[in-house]
# Entry
Amino acid sequence: MIEYLSLKRITAMHEEEIKEAVNEVIASGWYLNGKAVQRFEHNYSRYIGTQHCITCGNGLDALYLILRAYKALGVLNEGDEVIVPANTYIATILSITDNGLIPVLVEPSLDTLEIDDTLIEAALTPRTRAIMLVHLYGRCAYTERIGTICKQHNLKLIEDNAQAHGCTYKGKRTGSIGDAAAHSFYPGKNLGALGDAGAVTTNDEALAKLVRTLGNYGSSRKYVFDYRGKNSRMDEVQAAVLDVKLKYIDEDNTRRKEIAFLLEQGIDNPCITIPKASERDNVYHIFTLLTPYRNELQTFLSEHNIQTMIHYPIPPHRQLAYKEWNTLSLPITEQIHQQELSIPCNPVMIPKEIEELIETINSFAPHHI
Ligand SMILES: Cc1ncc(COP(=O)(O)O)c(C=O)c1O
# Structure
Protein backbone atom coordinates (compact mmCIF):
# COMPACT_ATOMS: atom_id res chain seq x y z
CA MET A 1 0.00 0.00 0.00
CA ILE A 2 1.34 3.44 -0.91
CA GLU A 3 -0.18 5.64 1.76
CA TYR A 4 -1.17 9.20 0.91
CA LEU A 5 0.72 10.43 3.95
CA SER A 6 1.84 8.26 6.83
CA LEU A 7 2.06 10.50 9.88
CA LYS A 8 3.53 7.58 11.74
CA ARG A 9 6.46 7.47 9.31
CA ILE A 10 6.77 11.26 9.34
CA THR A 11 7.06 11.27 13.15
CA ALA A 12 9.42 8.28 13.07
CA MET A 13 11.96 10.36 11.09
CA HIS A 14 12.79 12.29 14.29
CA GLU A 15 11.08 10.20 16.91
CA GLU A 16 13.88 10.10 19.48
CA GLU A 17 14.40 13.85 19.40
CA ILE A 18 10.67 14.48 19.60
CA LYS A 19 10.28 12.14 22.56
CA GLU A 20 13.16 13.85 24.34
CA ALA A 21 11.56 17.25 23.79
CA VAL A 22 8.16 16.03 25.03
CA ASN A 23 9.78 14.39 28.08
CA GLU A 24 11.48 17.66 28.92
CA VAL A 25 8.10 19.41 28.95
CA ILE A 26 6.58 16.67 31.10
CA ALA A 27 9.45 16.91 33.56
CA SER A 28 9.26 20.71 33.68
CA GLY A 29 5.77 20.66 35.22
CA TRP A 30 4.90 23.74 33.13
CA TYR A 31 2.43 23.05 30.30
CA LEU A 32 1.11 26.39 29.01
CA ASN A 33 2.62 29.84 28.31
CA GLY A 34 6.13 28.66 29.10
CA LYS A 35 9.64 28.44 27.73
CA ALA A 36 8.92 26.01 24.89
CA VAL A 37 6.34 28.37 23.37
CA GLN A 38 8.67 31.34 23.81
CA ARG A 39 11.50 29.44 22.14
CA PHE A 40 9.37 28.30 19.23
CA GLU A 41 7.96 31.82 18.70
CA HIS A 42 11.51 33.17 18.59
CA ASN A 43 12.77 30.47 16.23
CA TYR A 44 9.75 30.52 13.94
CA SER A 45 9.73 34.31 13.55
CA ARG A 46 13.43 34.12 12.64
CA TYR A 47 12.71 31.33 10.18
CA ILE A 48 9.85 33.19 8.50
CA GLY A 49 11.67 36.53 8.68
CA THR A 50 9.28 38.63 10.74
CA GLN A 51 9.76 40.51 13.98
CA HIS A 52 6.83 38.84 15.70
CA CYS A 53 5.36 35.39 16.01
CA ILE A 54 2.33 34.80 18.21
CA THR A 55 1.34 31.18 18.64
CA CYS A 56 -2.30 30.15 18.96
CA GLY A 57 -4.57 27.12 18.94
CA ASN A 58 -4.84 26.40 15.19
CA GLY A 59 -4.73 27.94 11.73
CA LEU A 60 -8.35 29.04 11.69
CA ASP A 61 -7.82 30.95 14.93
CA ALA A 62 -4.68 32.55 13.49
CA LEU A 63 -6.66 33.85 10.50
CA TYR A 64 -9.56 34.91 12.70
CA LEU A 65 -7.35 36.72 15.23
CA ILE A 66 -5.59 38.75 12.52
CA LEU A 67 -8.91 40.04 11.18
CA ARG A 68 -10.31 40.56 14.66
CA ALA A 69 -7.21 42.56 15.64
CA TYR A 70 -7.51 44.72 12.52
CA LYS A 71 -11.11 45.40 13.54
CA ALA A 72 -10.02 46.35 17.06
CA LEU A 73 -7.45 48.71 15.50
CA GLY A 74 -10.16 50.29 13.33
CA VAL A 75 -8.42 49.16 10.12
CA LEU A 76 -11.34 46.87 9.25
CA ASN A 77 -15.02 47.40 10.03
CA GLU A 78 -18.08 45.15 9.84
CA GLY A 79 -19.26 44.90 6.24
CA ASP A 80 -15.84 45.56 4.72
CA GLU A 81 -14.89 43.34 1.82
CA VAL A 82 -11.94 40.97 1.70
CA ILE A 83 -10.74 39.52 -1.60
CA VAL A 84 -10.10 35.78 -1.35
CA PRO A 85 -9.50 32.92 -3.82
CA ALA A 86 -12.76 31.05 -4.49
CA ASN A 87 -11.04 27.64 -4.36
CA THR A 88 -9.53 27.92 -0.90
CA TYR A 89 -10.14 25.66 2.09
CA ILE A 90 -13.22 26.70 4.05
CA ALA A 91 -11.20 28.01 7.06
CA THR A 92 -10.05 31.04 5.07
CA ILE A 93 -13.64 32.01 4.35
CA LEU A 94 -14.87 31.22 7.88
CA SER A 95 -12.35 33.62 9.40
CA ILE A 96 -13.78 36.40 7.24
CA THR A 97 -17.49 35.77 7.80
CA ASP A 98 -17.00 35.06 11.55
CA ASN A 99 -15.68 38.62 11.80
CA GLY A 100 -18.72 40.13 10.07
CA LEU A 101 -16.65 40.86 6.97
CA ILE A 102 -17.62 39.98 3.40
CA PRO A 103 -15.54 37.53 1.36
CA VAL A 104 -15.32 38.44 -2.32
CA LEU A 105 -14.54 35.24 -4.18
CA VAL A 106 -12.05 35.56 -7.04
CA GLU A 107 -11.38 32.73 -9.45
CA PRO A 108 -7.99 30.99 -9.56
CA SER A 109 -5.96 30.41 -12.70
CA LEU A 110 -5.87 26.87 -14.10
CA ASP A 111 -2.09 27.04 -14.61
CA THR A 112 -1.24 27.73 -10.99
CA LEU A 113 -4.47 26.93 -9.11
CA GLU A 114 -3.70 30.16 -7.20
CA ILE A 115 -5.80 33.33 -7.30
CA ASP A 116 -5.83 34.85 -10.80
CA ASP A 117 -4.22 38.23 -10.21
CA THR A 118 -5.64 39.60 -13.47
CA LEU A 119 -9.16 39.34 -12.02
CA ILE A 120 -8.55 41.12 -8.72
CA GLU A 121 -8.95 44.72 -9.88
CA ALA A 122 -12.41 44.02 -11.32
CA ALA A 123 -13.47 42.65 -7.93
CA LEU A 124 -12.51 45.79 -6.00
CA THR A 125 -15.25 48.06 -4.64
CA PRO A 126 -15.11 51.12 -2.36
CA ARG A 127 -15.54 48.67 0.56
CA THR A 128 -12.54 46.48 -0.27
CA ARG A 129 -10.03 46.71 2.55
CA ALA A 130 -7.89 43.59 2.30
CA ILE A 131 -6.69 40.69 0.21
CA MET A 132 -6.46 37.30 1.89
CA LEU A 133 -3.83 35.54 -0.19
CA VAL A 134 -3.75 31.76 0.13
CA HIS A 135 -0.56 29.92 -0.83
CA LEU A 136 -2.68 26.93 -1.72
CA TYR A 137 -1.16 23.45 -2.11
CA GLY A 138 2.24 24.88 -1.08
CA ARG A 139 2.72 27.16 -4.10
CA CYS A 140 3.51 30.86 -3.69
CA ALA A 141 0.43 32.89 -4.64
CA TYR A 142 2.07 36.31 -4.39
CA THR A 143 2.83 38.32 -7.52
CA GLU A 144 4.19 41.83 -8.10
CA ARG A 145 0.81 42.75 -9.47
CA ILE A 146 -0.90 41.84 -6.18
CA GLY A 147 1.63 43.94 -4.27
CA THR A 148 0.97 46.91 -6.57
CA ILE A 149 -2.82 46.57 -6.22
CA CYS A 150 -2.48 46.57 -2.42
CA LYS A 151 -0.32 49.69 -2.49
CA GLN A 152 -2.50 51.55 -4.98
CA HIS A 153 -5.73 50.81 -3.14
CA ASN A 154 -4.38 50.87 0.40
CA LEU A 155 -5.35 47.26 1.07
CA LYS A 156 -3.97 45.04 3.82
CA LEU A 157 -2.31 41.91 2.48
CA ILE A 158 -2.95 38.92 4.74
CA GLU A 159 -1.32 35.60 3.88
CA ASP A 160 -2.88 32.25 4.64
CA ASN A 161 0.33 30.26 4.89
CA ALA A 162 -1.30 27.12 6.31
CA GLN A 163 -0.06 25.01 3.38
CA ALA A 164 3.25 26.64 2.50
CA HIS A 165 5.78 26.64 5.36
CA GLY A 166 9.19 27.34 3.91
CA CYS A 167 7.98 28.55 0.50
CA THR A 168 9.72 31.66 -0.81
CA TYR A 169 9.18 34.61 -3.11
CA LYS A 170 12.41 36.24 -4.35
CA GLY A 171 14.25 35.03 -1.26
CA LYS A 172 11.56 36.10 1.23
CA ARG A 173 9.50 33.42 2.92
CA THR A 174 5.78 33.35 2.47
CA GLY A 175 4.39 34.52 5.78
CA SER A 176 6.67 37.59 5.67
CA ILE A 177 5.51 39.12 2.39
CA GLY A 178 2.24 40.74 3.44
CA ASP A 179 1.14 42.72 6.51
CA ALA A 180 0.34 39.61 8.55
CA ALA A 181 0.18 35.86 8.02
CA ALA A 182 -1.58 32.87 9.51
CA HIS A 183 0.07 29.46 9.84
CA SER A 184 -1.47 26.11 10.66
CA PHE A 185 0.53 23.27 12.20
CA TYR A 186 -2.20 20.67 11.74
CA PRO A 187 -0.41 17.27 11.84
CA GLY A 188 -0.52 16.71 8.06
CA LYS A 189 1.02 20.08 7.17
CA ASN A 190 4.64 20.38 5.97
CA LEU A 191 5.43 21.57 9.51
CA GLY A 192 2.97 19.60 11.58
CA ALA A 193 2.42 19.23 15.33
CA LEU A 194 1.12 16.17 17.15
CA GLY A 195 -2.27 17.85 17.42
CA ASP A 196 -3.70 21.29 16.70
CA ALA A 197 -1.52 24.38 16.68
CA GLY A 198 -1.21 27.66 14.79
CA ALA A 199 0.61 31.00 14.67
CA VAL A 200 0.48 34.55 13.39
CA THR A 201 3.58 36.27 12.00
CA THR A 202 3.87 39.99 11.35
CA ASN A 203 6.20 43.00 11.52
CA ASP A 204 3.36 45.18 12.82
CA GLU A 205 3.91 45.61 16.55
CA ALA A 206 0.46 46.99 17.34
CA LEU A 207 -1.17 44.12 15.48
CA ALA A 208 1.07 41.56 17.21
CA LYS A 209 0.14 42.90 20.65
CA LEU A 210 -3.56 42.79 19.86
CA VAL A 211 -3.42 39.29 18.41
CA ARG A 212 -1.78 38.14 21.63
CA THR A 213 -4.34 39.95 23.77
CA LEU A 214 -7.31 38.67 21.77
CA GLY A 215 -6.03 35.10 21.95
CA ASN A 216 -5.72 35.48 25.72
CA TYR A 217 -9.39 36.21 26.55
CA GLY A 218 -8.88 39.87 25.57
CA SER A 219 -6.41 40.38 28.40
CA SER A 220 -2.93 41.87 28.29
CA ARG A 221 -2.63 42.04 32.10
CA LYS A 222 -3.75 39.25 34.37
CA TYR A 223 -7.49 39.52 35.18
CA VAL A 224 -7.90 42.80 33.26
CA PHE A 225 -10.00 42.42 30.10
CA ASP A 226 -10.01 45.17 27.49
CA TYR A 227 -11.61 43.07 24.74
CA ARG A 228 -13.98 40.15 24.46
CA GLY A 229 -11.30 37.75 23.33
CA LYS A 230 -11.01 34.00 23.03
CA ASN A 231 -8.78 31.36 24.49
CA SER A 232 -6.46 30.23 21.73
CA ARG A 233 -3.00 29.02 22.68
CA MET A 234 -0.38 26.55 21.60
CA ASP A 235 0.59 24.24 24.43
CA GLU A 236 4.14 23.56 25.53
CA VAL A 237 4.18 20.01 24.17
CA GLN A 238 3.23 21.12 20.66
CA ALA A 239 5.74 24.00 20.76
CA ALA A 240 8.52 21.61 21.81
CA VAL A 241 7.62 19.16 19.03
CA LEU A 242 7.44 21.92 16.42
CA ASP A 243 10.77 23.32 17.51
CA VAL A 244 12.40 19.98 16.76
CA LYS A 245 10.64 19.65 13.40
CA LEU A 246 11.45 23.24 12.40
CA LYS A 247 15.12 22.23 12.15
CA TYR A 248 14.26 19.79 9.36
CA ILE A 249 11.60 21.66 7.40
CA ASP A 250 13.96 22.86 4.65
CA GLU A 251 15.42 19.38 4.24
CA ASP A 252 11.88 17.92 4.09
CA ASN A 253 10.78 20.53 1.54
CA THR A 254 13.84 19.79 -0.61
CA ARG A 255 12.89 16.11 -0.61
CA ARG A 256 9.29 17.00 -1.52
CA LYS A 257 10.62 19.08 -4.44
CA GLU A 258 12.85 16.23 -5.63
CA ILE A 259 9.94 13.78 -5.55
CA ALA A 260 7.64 16.30 -7.25
CA PHE A 261 10.25 16.74 -9.99
CA LEU A 262 10.31 12.97 -10.58
CA LEU A 263 6.50 12.89 -10.69
CA GLU A 264 6.34 15.83 -13.09
CA GLN A 265 8.97 14.26 -15.35
CA GLY A 266 7.56 10.75 -15.12
CA ILE A 267 3.81 11.23 -15.47
CA ASP A 268 2.97 11.48 -19.16
CA ASN A 269 -0.55 10.13 -19.30
CA PRO A 270 -2.39 12.24 -21.92
CA CYS A 271 -5.58 12.21 -19.79
CA ILE A 272 -3.83 14.05 -16.99
CA THR A 273 -2.64 17.63 -16.57
CA ILE A 274 -0.16 18.72 -13.94
CA PRO A 275 -0.43 22.43 -13.08
CA LYS A 276 3.29 23.18 -13.06
CA ALA A 277 3.89 26.94 -13.21
CA SER A 278 7.49 26.15 -12.35
CA GLU A 279 8.62 29.78 -12.05
CA ARG A 280 6.81 29.96 -8.71
CA ASP A 281 8.31 28.37 -5.66
CA ASN A 282 6.31 25.38 -4.48
CA VAL A 283 6.91 23.31 -1.35
CA TYR A 284 4.41 20.70 -2.55
CA HIS A 285 2.21 20.41 0.51
CA ILE A 286 -0.21 18.78 -1.93
CA PHE A 287 0.78 17.39 -5.34
CA THR A 288 -2.17 18.02 -7.63
CA LEU A 289 -3.30 16.37 -10.83
CA LEU A 290 -6.22 17.55 -12.93
CA THR A 291 -8.20 15.10 -15.02
CA PRO A 292 -11.78 14.90 -16.28
CA TYR A 293 -11.62 11.23 -15.21
CA ARG A 294 -10.79 12.05 -11.61
CA ASN A 295 -13.19 9.66 -9.89
CA GLU A 296 -12.28 6.81 -12.23
CA LEU A 297 -8.57 7.46 -11.70
CA GLN A 298 -9.03 7.55 -7.95
CA THR A 299 -10.82 4.17 -7.99
CA PHE A 300 -8.16 2.73 -10.31
CA LEU A 301 -5.34 3.86 -8.02
CA SER A 302 -7.16 2.57 -4.97
CA GLU A 303 -7.52 -0.83 -6.69
CA HIS A 304 -3.75 -0.69 -7.15
CA ASN A 305 -3.25 0.03 -3.45
CA ILE A 306 -2.42 3.70 -3.89
CA GLN A 307 -4.14 6.14 -1.57
CA THR A 308 -5.14 9.53 -2.93
CA MET A 309 -7.17 12.47 -1.68
CA ILE A 310 -9.31 15.22 -3.18
CA HIS A 311 -8.59 18.84 -2.20
CA TYR A 312 -11.44 19.64 -2.21
CA PRO A 313 -14.57 17.86 -3.48
CA ILE A 314 -16.98 20.79 -2.91
CA PRO A 315 -15.94 24.45 -3.29
CA PRO A 316 -16.91 26.90 -0.51
CA HIS A 317 -19.61 28.58 -2.62
CA ARG A 318 -21.38 25.23 -3.09
CA GLN A 319 -21.42 24.34 0.61
CA LEU A 320 -24.58 24.35 2.70
CA ALA A 321 -22.79 26.62 5.19
CA TYR A 322 -22.90 29.34 2.50
CA LYS A 323 -26.33 28.71 1.02
CA GLU A 324 -26.55 32.29 -0.21
CA TRP A 325 -23.70 31.61 -2.67
CA ASN A 326 -24.95 28.26 -3.97
CA THR A 327 -26.16 29.74 -7.26
CA LEU A 328 -22.94 31.65 -7.97
CA SER A 329 -21.15 30.54 -11.10
CA LEU A 330 -17.39 30.16 -10.66
CA PRO A 331 -16.50 27.81 -13.53
CA ILE A 332 -12.73 27.58 -12.99
CA THR A 333 -13.15 26.84 -9.31
CA GLU A 334 -15.83 24.26 -10.09
CA GLN A 335 -13.65 22.62 -12.73
CA ILE A 336 -10.78 22.32 -10.24
CA HIS A 337 -13.06 20.78 -7.63
CA GLN A 338 -14.39 18.30 -10.17
CA GLN A 339 -11.00 17.37 -11.59
CA GLU A 340 -8.47 17.65 -8.75
CA LEU A 341 -6.75 14.54 -7.43
CA SER A 342 -3.96 14.72 -4.83
CA ILE A 343 -1.36 11.98 -5.09
CA PRO A 344 1.27 10.96 -2.52
CA CYS A 345 4.27 13.32 -2.40
CA ASN A 346 6.02 13.53 0.94
CA PRO A 347 9.51 13.19 2.40
CA VAL A 348 9.12 9.61 3.63
CA MET A 349 8.38 8.13 0.21
CA ILE A 350 10.97 5.66 -1.00
CA PRO A 351 12.18 5.36 -4.66
CA LYS A 352 10.22 2.12 -5.21
CA GLU A 353 6.98 3.85 -4.22
CA ILE A 354 7.68 6.82 -6.48
CA GLU A 355 8.37 4.51 -9.45
CA GLU A 356 5.27 2.44 -8.79
CA LEU A 357 3.14 5.56 -8.46
CA ILE A 358 4.36 6.92 -11.81
CA GLU A 359 3.97 3.58 -13.61
CA THR A 360 0.47 2.99 -12.28
CA ILE A 361 -0.72 6.48 -13.18
CA ASN A 362 0.72 6.14 -16.69
CA SER A 363 -1.04 2.80 -17.16
CA PHE A 364 -4.46 4.33 -16.47
CA ALA A 365 -6.90 4.44 -19.39
CA PRO A 366 -10.40 5.75 -18.77
CA HIS A 367 -13.37 3.63 -19.80
CA HIS A 368 -15.68 6.48 -20.63
CA ILE A 369 -14.00 8.82 -23.12
C1 LIG B 1 -5.56 26.97 3.45
C2 LIG B 1 -5.87 26.66 4.87
N1 LIG B 1 -6.23 27.65 5.69
C3 LIG B 1 -6.52 27.42 6.99
C4 LIG B 1 -6.47 26.16 7.52
C5 LIG B 1 -6.89 25.95 8.93
O1 LIG B 1 -5.92 25.43 9.74
P1 LIG B 1 -6.31 24.55 11.02
O2 LIG B 1 -6.77 23.22 10.54
O3 LIG B 1 -5.05 24.49 11.81
O4 LIG B 1 -7.38 25.31 11.74
C6 LIG B 1 -6.07 25.09 6.70
C7 LIG B 1 -5.88 23.73 7.18
O5 LIG B 1 -6.55 22.96 7.67
C8 LIG B 1 -5.79 25.35 5.35
O6 LIG B 1 -5.45 24.35 4.52
Remarks:
- The mean pLDDT is 97.
